[in-house]
Amino acid sequence: MANPSLLILAGDGIGPEVMEQVKRVIGWFGEKRDLAFDVSEDLVGGAAYDAHGTPLHDDTMARALEVDAVLLGAVGGPKYDDLDFSVKPERGLLRLRKEMDLFSNLRPAQCFDALADFSSLKKDVVAGLDIMIVRELTSGVYFGEPRGIFEEGNERVGINTQRYTEGEIDRVARSAFELARRRSGKVCSMEKANVMESGILWREVVQKVRDTDYPDIELSHMYADNGAMQLVRAPKQFDVILTDNLFGDILSDCAAMLTGSLGMLPSASLGKPTEKGPPRALYEPVHGSAPDIAGQGKANPIACILSFAMALRYSFDQGDEAARLEAAIETVLAEGARTADLMGAEGGTPISTAEMGDAILGALDASL
Length: 368
Ligand code: NAD
What we know:
By secondary structure, this protein is α/β, with parallel strands linked by helices. It folds into 2 domains: about 1-110 and about 260-368, Isopropylmalate Dehydrogenase (3-Layer(aba) Sandwich), CATH 3.40.718; about 135-260, 3-Layer(aba) Sandwich (Rossmann fold), CATH 3.40.50.2300. It is about 40% helix and about 20% strand. The strands form 2 sheets. It has a 10-stranded mixed sheet, with helices on both faces. The longest helix is centred in the N-terminal third of the chain and has 18 residues, at about 15-30. The structure holds nicotinamide-adenine-dinucleotide (NAD). Nicotinamide-adenine-dinucleotide binds near residues 14, 18, 75, 90 and 289. The site of nicotinamide-adenine-dinucleotide (NAD) has 22 residues, from helix 4.
């Protein structure tokens, strides 16, 4: 059987630096766990613009649609700030998301014990936290029509429309339930059914999908404003949170910050299941290209490495190996390995991007 295929798009700024460490980790799994990938690499963002005059070449797009998963670093940087909107680096990423039809965005908020002091919340509230926000990504108020700024009488009015079809709710609900089956089997769906019709429909459809096809899942519903409050009050009550595009945007940033540094946060964006089985998928760290530290060997590669761990779990059905990689990261952090972004008040000497990679590979070796 052919190896699973992976397209690496390292992108700009610290993207290639952190991806270098991911490539070492991928190599380790091929060598030590008999888990080889058919890896190809290409350009995206500013790097693609420099080479081809477009932030995503058509051939790269075609390849992204063929492979089992895409792993992306980061795009953008000051060099490209004055480019026309149509060729800005971010357009490459948006095109990938759109043409791969990635409607389900997964953002875990996981607090490694060694970093619990980084949270703005009390240590006991966040230590051991492991929740996943599933955000609908391609519809809702950011896309609904009518939208715009219109003249109305003698003043202007700004309009956006929250719009969800049953089909759009159905597919993202399934994505959350499938995910929950690999975790604790618990989903909390958040909307504002008390004041929004789209929220009423959301609640109905989510409940129906659960009752029809996922009776094993424990489903609860919560108003999104209460959800925000509960997230900072007692986040460990949640496992999978399912929500729409707008609420998900806010709730996932809020949940992410429970855990501390941007350099630690992975994400996945999933589409419909393909004929091959797993859905189309793009994995990427939440952070950007960090031009302020690019080229200095200071970037924390963990967010990107954890994105690969998500790929192992959700695209390649290798949950045990994903857990092995996450445990290796937990170990190096517990042993005190810190890139500059993770230096707390206690001080110490930060290690480089490559040294963090060395430490994680060492912990992986020790796990055998
Ligand atoms: P950023 O995430 O690049 O950086 C914000 C801050 O966090 C910076 O101080 C940076 O040094 C630090 N940081 C980020 N990742 C880090 C890591 N792995 N290790 C250590 N420190 C890290 O956000 P920004 O500065 O607002 O944006 C910079 C560029 O990235 C812009 O061009 C922006 O458009 C782009 N961007 C891209 C993406 C993406 O590719 N998905 C996301 C956000 C921003």
